[in-house]
Design goal:
The structure is a single chain. The chain has about 60 residues and is of the alpha+beta class. The chain is built from two helices and two strands; from the N terminus they run αββα. About 0% of the residues are buried. The chain is rod-shaped.
Amino acid sequence: MATSPSSEEMAAIVAAIELVWPKPVVVAPARPQESNWKWSGRWWGPLDHVSGRKRPWRPR
């Protein structure tokens, strides 16, 4: 019949698990960098060109 581990053995088991268990790692930067790009509806384009773009159609 198996006996339960002593306090010292249990502490050693817990320490070994804590040592080898994978830790979560943050790989993304804390704050996203400021971007010069903006969604314009159909295309991606720099902010200074989006508002002045000539449209290929005439509004009705």
